[in-house]
Amino acid sequence: MGTYARELVGMGYGFPLWDPEPERHGEVLIGDVGFLVKGRFHRLFNPTLPAEHVVNQVWGVPDVFEELKIPANLYSYKAAAISADTVCSRSFVKLDINATVNAKSMANLGLHFRCTDNQGAVLVLPTKTAAGVQLLPNSLVPKFIGRNHAYWYEFATEKAQLDLKQQDIILVSGWVKTARWAVAAFVDGGREVEVSFRAGQATLADASFSLTATQSTSRSWHQHSGPVLDESFDEGSSSMARRTQDQCVFLHFYKSKRRLGGILPKFLPKKMTMRSPWFFRIA
């Protein structure tokens, strides 16, 4: 969902993923080399792990495979990267919050917004928290990418037979993860559109957005929630809430990009500081 990414990319948490669920081969890791498709990250391999590691056995590794050793002091951890029930675009105004608690201590989250522009996006965090890890600015990773990116692209297009451009190959430098989420976005909605969301704390099975247009009707409205398969939820215990933070709602990454007459693409907030002019960092 391009609209979702455009609306939330400027909020300071990283690049928004419309589909935060991990692949079947595991959650997003620092150092993952991969690509984005329809708002979801797909890992090819991870050079911070040995070539024979199980993570690197799905697609294999490039013929020229250099391991990346990142010192521990370059990692910046934040247990509460987000401490809120929502992250929404600037066009959204939160009208009220209604949280109730039943006899079994299961919180029910109710949110109500008004969008004052023609498009908008919102991320709901029912657990009201998300953890984050990010690499500090450094010269180690950009130099590593400069030596290896051509081999990664050849691997992706020749060995893996993926239809990708060179700039599609990225290296993950950070993430923000939560346990449960719901996302919604719309375009051509008309001003004064109102959006409501309700969900139980224990499960998102009954989570739902509702849209009310006070002046015009949204012609393009999208929403979904997750995780779809919640193995930590016990149907026999309605008070149990999922706590495993493996759902990647925001991503930080390095990507390769040739100069375009001095004009940077809209989604690249800043240019990386390094000798080569071909690399940028999504911060």
Strand content: 35-45%
Rg computed from alpha carbons, rounded to a whole number of angstroms: 20 Å
| Average residue-wise pLDDT | 80
Number of domains: 1
Descriptive tags:
283 residues; mainly beta; 2 helices
What's this entry about, in short?
The chain has helices spanning 2-8, 140-159; strands at 15-16, 33-37, 40-45, 75-82, 86-88, 92-101, 107-115, 120-124, 130-135, 170-178, 181-187, 193-200, 208-213, 220-226, 247-256, 279-282. By secondary structure, the protein is mainly beta.
Structure write-up:
The chain is mainly β. The protein has one domain (2-229, 241-282). 10% of the residues lie in helices and 37% in strands. The strands form 3 sheets. Strands 1, 2, 3, 4, 9, 10, 15 and 16 form an 8-stranded antiparallel β-sheet that branches. The longest helix is centred in the middle third of the chain and has 20 residues, at 140-159.
What topology emerges from the helices and strands here?
Blueprint (H helix, E strand, L loop, with lengths): L1 H7 L6 E2 L16 E5 L2 E6 L29 E8 L3 E3 L3 E10 L5 E9 L4 E5 L5 E6 L4 H20 L10 E9 L2 E7 L5 E8 L7 E6 L6 E7 L20 E10 L22 E4 L1
Antiparallel strand pairs: 1-15, 2-3, 2-10, 4-9, 5-8, 6-7, 7-12, 8-11, 9-10, 10-15, 11-14, 12-13, 15-16
